[in-house]
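HUMAN: I'm a chemist; might I ask for a sequence paired with its structure tokens?

ASSISTANT:
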Amino acid sequence: PVSFDLFFDREELVEDLAASAFSLQKNVHQNFALVSPRRFGKTSVFVKLQSQLEKKGFAVVYFDCSEVFPNTLENLLNAYAERVLKAFSNASGLNFLPERIAQAVSGAPDAVSSLVSSLVSRFGIEVGNHFTAWIELKSSRKNEQKFFETTFDLAEILSKKTGVKCVVFLDEFQKLLDFGEPFLWALRARLQHHKNTVYFVAGSSVGTVNYLLSEKKSPLYNLFLLRDLAPFTVSQTRDFVKKRFATVKLEIADDALDKIISITNGIPFYVQLIGLNAYFIALHKKAKNISSPLVEEAYALS
């Protein structure tokens, strides 16, 4: 993901998503999905939006569904619960210690007993039920359904208890299909009733995500408003490349710029990759201009 000073030309999309999140404060609710191949900038949009929302006092949960390993249901629910608790700790100022949460989520059942009592005293029995289900699962008194329900309701419960609205980002959302269609039906059953939590999801497997969210047969049909994230246009790519080279006092020839556009098709990651390699080559050659042959060298390095 790019840093804020390099963020380019997704401002309108960020504004739309931010407006949707802010509408939670007026009890208006709309989930969004961003769909595009990898390297188009979805995560950068989420990171930019996360900063804005946190400044406005939202609890923001960023969760990459592809990072769970081994990819088991228990590991998924543990990791998700930990992110939710940390987000509310940051937003509400409540005395959650992140290390204590991490220890509780990944450790033995005994590690959560004091954490459970402190959470129950603040938020009531609903949150205690989550950890009770977790302890039962860890102790081999398997109740995966209860653990699933309490985990995916956790953000909504904490939002109601604290008065802090919550935004959940689920990146690489298509990975949840690994858990099967019954999992997705159960997920819909939880999310569709949440009023204080909005969900923004992103997926890089375009066909799979479009099926999950747009097909009438899919469990998640009509749960999210879809937005396709397109590459930069030709004019946007020209503007971005010129501005970036200008910051390091380099000019780029028109034919070199045309070559970058042709090579990258405006895909943000590849525009940056070719541009960065071109910069390094120019630095070593002490060149003042980016030429078409220099871009060819940069492409060969990439």
